[in-house]
Specification:
The protein is an alpha/beta fold. The chain has 15 helices and 23 strands. The mean pLDDT is 96. The protein binds nicotinamide-adenine-dinucleotide. The site of nicotinamide-adenine-dinucleotide has 31 residues, from helix 7 and helix 8.
Length: 500
């Protein structure tokens, strides 16, 4: 039975909503339709009410979407990079023009506090702008000569789009993770089938609705909403040359297994359990501010959460006291209230999962602080554990909620050893007085990004991705473009220099 929909108005950026409140969840060759798959109920995490239903697709819709992308592939790859860049720039402008509505949508459907929702939309704009600029410059797209040791031959290298790509994204940064894939894929000349998370499909529905108005030929971007079954159908489709996936390490493992059968290309952006290292000369207020952002931004639902906080033993007690005070000062509430700094978790089910981790954690380490909440939403107060043993599940597994673990260290070597002692290797943050000393330590960390005295800023120009179980490949920057390209060399023997 369908749950009654709440009366909360939804920003007017979605594809046309049917009279019964259902949104089409399939878009093939520019045409929206109600899919024949599972109906997805999008729930407002602020009050737990059903917001809207999305008519998701099935494996037939995936097949039709891949065929549409394949039909559009030749035309799009032969479009000059500068013309592709003009479309990307138009998308950036269209997103910017609808910024206010998209921010509202992010607050409503993802529970992100306004400042965080604004950062997401800004990030989408700057990502499309960045890849538009690469297209304009031809950098990484135009063929370039290759120097050879023998003048009898000339060679050049060219970069070919890898074909139809499947883009599968999670719920924690829906619009952003889509932009990080779609902008470089389109810049490279690929055509795409996008599979949003079944929890937060509205972000991608709104984004595609805007993109369709930006001069993109029909079939270049297609979309099928649905659950893991739709993702599986996409990864198993013979017409998909590459899967670019962001999500859990467990799903990434399944995707890699499926890809092995066809030596299909994959980029995997997976989980994390990252460290913040507070050195003995760190500014404590700055370190606490980095800890709060690293552990509680997006209610801790971040692959890059620095939820393992390593503090030099000399500062540990003072740091713990100030960190708890700062966590107490977080304003838990409705994300649309400008004072709110900690929004709800994405779903009841996810909050229960996080709470189970907290319950288990009580046997492993003392709770230094636990925030309280009330109301119908999926809010959860911040939880801080102290002196957590490195063997505890709490310390080792990705929790994906507002839960931080503290631990003291005595020497730099110990800090590095503990930070690197993880299955994951996505990011790390170092808080230090002496930045040269921090840079030497950064060099020893097995992670894709290190922030030194810097909040978790990600620029389109800098690569994103992890070591170990945090993934394979890199997004953003020129690496993001390369991940959607095959490399071809052409070697020609010069006239008059034919080999005997
Ligand atoms: P998830 O793995 O459950 O789902 C991600 C997407 O994959 C969804 O669209 C889902 O429907 C689909 N999916 C699930 N199983 C699949 C399968 N076997 N084959 C194909 N598709 C499948 O992840 P989630 O719960 O949506 O997101 C949270 C996870 O994402 C966390 O582990 C987080 O660390 C990770 N994440 C990583 C990054 C990064 O850049 N490294 C960024 C954001 C989130």
């Amino acid at each position: 039975m369908n749950a009654a929909l709440s009366l909360t108005p939804i920003p007017d950026v979605l594809p046309p909503v049917a009279a019964d409140g259902t949104v089409p969840g399939v878009c093939i060759a520019g045409r929206w339709s109600a899919g024949a798959g599972r109906a997805l109920t999008v729930v407002n995490p602020i009050d737990g009410q059903a917001l809207v239903r999305v008519a998701g697709g099935d494996s037939d819709a995936v097949d039709a979407a891949v065929r549409a992308a394949a039909a559009a592939a030749e035309g799009w790859r032969n479009t000059a990079p500068q013309a592709r860049g003009a479309v990307l720039e138009a998308i950036a402008r269209a997103v910017h023009a609808q910024r206010a509505a998209l921010v509202e949508l992010q607050m409503l459907a993802s529970g992100k506090p306004r400042a965080e929702a604004e950062m997401d939309v800004n990030d989408v704009v700057s990502t499309f702008d960045y890849y538009a600029s690469l297209c304009r410059s031809g950098k990484g797209l135009d063929a370039v000569p290759v120097e050879l040791p023998d003048a009898a031959f000339v060679a050049e290298v060219s970069y070919q789009p890898c074909g139809v790509v499947g883009l599968i994204v999670p719920w924690n940064f829906p619009m952003v993770t889509t932009a990080w894939k779609l902008a470089p894929a389109l810049a490279a000349g690929c055509t795409a089938v996008l599979k949003p998370s079944d929890v937060t499909p509205l972000a991608e529905l709104a984004l595609l609705q805007l993109i369709l108005q930006c001069g993109l030929p029909a079939g270049v971007v297609n979309l099928v909403c649905g659950g893991a079954d739709v993702g599986v159908a996409l990864t198993q489709h013979a017409g998909v040359a590459k899967i670019s996936f962001t999500g859990s390490t467990a799903a990434g493992t399944s995707i890699m297994r499926a890809a092995a059968n066809r030596i299909q290309r994959v980029t995997l952006e997976l989980g994390g359990k990252s460290a913040l290292i507070v050195l003995d000369d760190a500014d404590l207020d700055e370190a606490v501010s980095l800890a709060i952002g690293g552990a509680f931004f997006n209610a801790g639902q971040m692959c890059s959460a620095t939820s393992r906080i390593l503090v030099h033993e000399r500062l540990y007690a003072e740091f713990a006291q100030r960190f708890v005070a700062a966590a107490k000062a977080l304003r838990i509430g409705d994300p649309r209230d400008p004072a709110t700094t900690l929004g709800p978790l994405i779903s009841r089910q996810h909050r229960e999962r996080v709470q189970r981790h907290v319950e288990l954690g009580r046997n492993a380490a003392p709770v230094l602080f636990e925030g309280e909440v009330s109301g119908d939403g999926f809010h959860m107060g911040p939880v801080i554990f102290g002196e957590v043993p490195t063997s505890a599940t709490l310390w080792r597994e990705e929790i994906f909620g507002p839960v931080a673990c503290l631990r003291a260290f005595a020497t730099e070597d110990e800090a590095i050893r503990i930070a690197n002692d993880s299955d994951y290797g996505l990011v790390a943050t170092i808080a230090a007085g002496d930045e040269a000393r921090a840079a030497l330590l950064a060099d020893r960390l097995q992670v894709g990004t290190v922030w030194i005295n810097t909040p978790q800023l990600i620029f389109p120009q800098t690569g994103w991705g992890g070591f170990k179980k945090s993934g394979i490949g890199r997004e953003l920057g020129p690496w993001g473009l390369k991940s959607f390209q095959e490399v071809r060399h052409t070697i020609t023997q010069q006239q008059g220099n034919q080999a005997p």
